[in-house]
Amino acid sequence: MKALLLKRKWAFMVYILASCLFIVSDLLYMSLSSMIFDALEKGSLTLFINRIVLGILILGTMSALYFTSRFLRIGYMRNVLLDIRMEAFKTILKMSPRQFGKISKENYVSRLTNDINLIEEKFFRSLLNFISGLGLYVFGLVILLVMDRMLALWIFAVSLIVYFICKLFLKRTEQLQEEVSTENEKFTLNMSNTFNGLEIIKLGNIEDKFLDKNKQEVSRVEHRKFVFNNFSEVQQNVLLFASYLVMVGVVWHLGLCIAEGMALGSAVFLFQLSNQVVFRTMDTFPLLNVIRSSSKIYDKLTQIEEQIEVEGQQPFCFNQHMMLRNVSFGYEQDQPLLKNISLKIEKGKKYLIKGASGSGKSTLLKMLEMIYDDYEGTIQVDGVDYKSISSKDFNDKVAVIDQDIFLFEDTIENNISLYKPLNDEIMEKAITGAGLEDFIGEKEAGLQTAILENGKNLSGGQRQRIAIARAIAKEAELLFVDEGTASLNEKLGREIEKVFLSLPQTVIAISHRYYEGVSERYDYVLELQGGHVKVHEAKTYFEGVGVC
């Protein structure tokens, strides 16, 4: 967090200066009070009126200092918070799909919203009060040393005791702050799951059950916040009690000074200054705990970077074949889902993965997509080990089509090109290859037709064709299809399957459907049974019981 704050050194210096403007306001206010009491002591009405007029000017100056401070601070805070959001988002984007999948998407959303809001609310507010409080403490002590050395030394000794008391609270403060963050993540995840399953909840008439569950989740979040806030209050109250005891000593000391001839105005000024130094000290040092605990939340947002594995450096070149040798994989170490799989995938061929539910079809596909890499055995492409291949280079040369296609809220053109410049020839080839000519031709805006959020204004077949156009436009060498026609009707599914099979790319697909006269056009069927794979010629496979 320190490095981020100092990224804009001059802006941070301005932020500190702006925070210290409150010190000027406090000193002006104390001076005003001192001068008014001084006028009262002297019994001069003219002097009293002059001090009142001066007071109005001072109050106006204090208001101007407040707005100036806010104006100077707000831009720096906004930029740092933007940096935090971007750094956290960049960290997530750097992760491999396998790393990203270790926790749910909702947890990342919670980190990018709740945790950053927590930093904004706790860190910057605490930092502002800490800087102004520490500044007042330093300036106040210096003034006290000039005016009353004994009083200054006494208050300094008390401040050291306060500092060490605050250190005792630090570890627990950090722990409670992290618990608040964790509960926020759980709450966000629960809400997302509820909204995703809203149709089932309504059909099952179990709204009350989920309302109760939601109430429990909210209670847990609020309880963590309550505990954290109460713990912070305990710190404040312990120190507040100590502050009152100190101020009793200050009043006693100043009473003796007045008895020895100190002017009332000077005594009032010393009392107010001592009061500010003591109470601001009691408030300021606990803020260190809040600042440090907020820094822990920042570390949580960015520590994923440490988990990013060393990437392979070899280019992905698929000119001949891909070889799997004795490949085994399991989500649980002692229960392998795939066992000693060995097979050869040739460039330009079309492969269909079949098998019962839970047989490992998607798992095999994800290994070939480089999402899972903690398998035993080896996967090689033209003799180069999969694990040594650069994931960036791999992603540049493969395309994936899932059952649920993701589309950006943008034009058809940008959804096909993925924001990369494409010449007209490649774009036309993609549109023709995916069978989008009629669809785009019907649109008044053509390729500039806007797609609503995730393609809400498109049919399932249109979404799939845009995904296919993406793969063609990308000129991918390898196309992975995971249940690409599952959500389509028979007629449309058959048409889309024909498009897959007409492409020049190597295609590896999963499908539970059989389209007579189309599915036979695959070159091979990879049948998964009991963790093993059997390779069949497609025509032979679909002649018998394999159809079902």
Low-pLDDT stretches are none
Query: Fraction of residues in helices?
Result: 55-70%
Task: Let me know the CATH homologous superfamily of the largest domain.
Answer: ABC transporter type 1, transmembrane domain
- Name the helix and strand elements from N-terminus to C-terminus, one letter apiece: HHHHHHHHHEEEHEEHEHHHHEHEEEH
> Could you say which overall geometry the principal axes of the C-alpha atoms support?
elongated
Overall tally of domains = 2
Q: Oligomeric status of the shown chains? A: single chain
Overall mean pLDDT score? Answer: 78
Query: Would you tell me the structural class of the helices and strands?
Result: alpha/beta
**CA gyration radius, whole angstroms:** 35 Å
Known CATH architecture of the largest domain: Up-down Bundle
Query: According to CATH, what is the topology of the largest domain?
Result: ABC transporter transmembrane region fold
Strand order of the largest sheet: 6-7-8-3-9-10
